[in-house]
């Protein structure tokens, strides 16, 4: 038999698949993988139906349906004051993950260094390694609310530094970038040949009146940035796997070279439907209030448990600390909560290269109120 040399020997099955499968197997409430347990708008489903009936069933243009790219350009201009050319600076992707992979492939050459803040979403590092790049991780800690120490970032920069990956609102920590972070970042990359990959898939899931600091707002940062966004997160339809990437033309030119041979184009009917649906700006402007209500409800419930709640400023996640309750590793404890309490969550050590375990668990609150109540009740009943 032939043998294969793994390109990713350290990589197993993603934690999201593992925990969702376990939750299904043991009948636990699944607050692990981030996705809603309620449906997307019937109007949106109608629009997909209509697009199919109207005959939009063949390949979309490689960069995506023009009407959708136009809507995205309008939205980005309106929200962030940035104009992106729909023809040369916007590409529709098969979800955020494909956009991230494609951007990393377009930028990273062998031995290039990429700065990643950990805990980090688990698709960044494998893509960097597949390109022969080197992950330079900077660990953030719950003790100071996962604040980025920019002096430490500065120390990591050298002439091999090619890319910095940012993610705000952040998965899994639910923190957001603030104006001061933007200032520090701008100072660090100024006059350097460093690019930015900004994972902004939770851009509209931001709470307490905070502002989303998109890279699109800052001309100096924007001209070196790939910005990734997700319609799955926006419209409660993660299974449709449609997102997009924004980048200045010289970067998007390289992105598209890879995109065309990775997916060629994304399913057309959904794109036509979203283009139509986006015309109603309330569909995304109402999201912060919609999710903040869920966050508050879940936090109120969790407050009665023995867990220590960490802040949640954005995304659809709420993390808790439990180190004062048991010495178990977060993975062991997450498995036990899933099996014994009947509530699945994500252990956050999996998002650190070194497996750093701060005894922090991540729960997804993009769920119906009764699901959240049921989960809280199970956690209250759980005997350690
Ligand atoms: N973004 C989702 C989460 O963090 C999962 C995405 C995935 O499963 N690839 O839970």
From TrEMBL:
GO molecular function: kynurenine-oxoglutarate transaminase activity; pyridoxal phosphate binding
Domain Aminotransferase class I/classII large: 29-379
This protein's record includes keyword Transferase: yes
Signal peptide: 1-23
CDD domains given in the database record: AAT_like
InterPro entries: Aminotransferase_I/II_large, Kynurenine-oxoglutarate_AT, PyrdxlP-dep_Trfase, PyrdxlP-dep_Trfase_major, PyrdxlP-dep_Trfase_small
Gene3D superfamilies in UniProt: Aspartate Aminotransferase, domain 1 (3.90.1150.10), Type I PLP-dependent aspartate aminotransferase-like (Major domain) (3.40.640.10)
GO cellular component: cytoplasm
Keyword terms, alphabetized: Aminotransferase, Pyridoxal phosphate, Signal, Transferase
Cofactor annotation: pyridoxal 5'-phosphate
UniProt key word Manganese: no
One Pfam family from the record: Aminotran_1_2
Record-stated family: Belongs to the class-I pyridoxal-phosphate-dependent aminotransferase family.
Full protein name: Aminotransferase class I/II-fold pyridoxal phosphate-dependent enzyme
Protein's organism: Mucilaginibacter corticis
């Amino acid at each position: 038999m032939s043998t294969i040399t793994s390109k990713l020997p350290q990589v197993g099955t993603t934690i999201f698949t593992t925990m969702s499968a376990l939750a299904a197997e043991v009948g636990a409430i699944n607050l692990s993988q981030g996705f809603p347990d309620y449906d997307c708008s019937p109007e949106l489903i109608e629009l997909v139906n209509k697009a199919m009936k109207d005959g939009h069933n063949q390949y979309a243009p490689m960069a995506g349906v023009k009407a959708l790219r136009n809507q995205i350009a309008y939205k980005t201009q309106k929200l962030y004051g940035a104009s992106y050319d729909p023809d040369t600076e916007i590409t529709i992707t098969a979800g955020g993950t494909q956009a991230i992979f494609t951007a990393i492939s377009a930028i990273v050459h062998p031995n290039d260094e990429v700065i990643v803040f950990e805990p980090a979403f688990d698709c960044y590092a494998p893509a960097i390694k597949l390109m022969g790049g080197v992950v330079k991780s900077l660990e953030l800690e719950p003790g100071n609310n996962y604040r980025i120490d920019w002096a430490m970032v500065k120390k990591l920069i050298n002439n091999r530094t090619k890319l910095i990956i940012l993610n705000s609102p952040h998965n899994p920590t639910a923190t957001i970038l603030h104006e001061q972070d933007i200032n520090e970042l701008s100072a660090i990359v100024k006059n350097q040949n460093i690019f930015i990959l900004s994972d902004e898939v939770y851009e509209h899931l931001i709470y307490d009146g905070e502002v989303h600091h998109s890279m699109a707002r800052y001309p100096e940062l924007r001209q070196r940035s790939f910005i990734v966004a997700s319609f799955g997160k926006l419209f409660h339809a993660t299974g449709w796997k449609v997102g997009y990437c924004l980048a200045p033309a010289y970067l998007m030119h390289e992105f598209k070279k890879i995109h065309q041979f990775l997916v060629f184009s994304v399913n057309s009917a959904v794109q036509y439907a979203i283009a139509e649906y986006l015309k109603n700006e309330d569909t995304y402007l109402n999201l912060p209030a919609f999710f903040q209500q869920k966050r508050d409800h879940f936090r109120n419930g969790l407050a009665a448990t023995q867990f220590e709640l960490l802040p949640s400023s954005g995304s659809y996640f709420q993390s808790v600390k439990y180190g004062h309750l048991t010495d178990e590793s977060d993975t062991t404890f997450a498995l036990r909560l899933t099996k014994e309490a009947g509530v699945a969550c994500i252990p956050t050590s999996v998002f650190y290269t070194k497996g750093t375990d701060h005894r922090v668990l991540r729960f997804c609150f993009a769920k119906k109120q009764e699901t959240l109540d049921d989960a809280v009740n199970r956690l209250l009943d759980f005997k350690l």
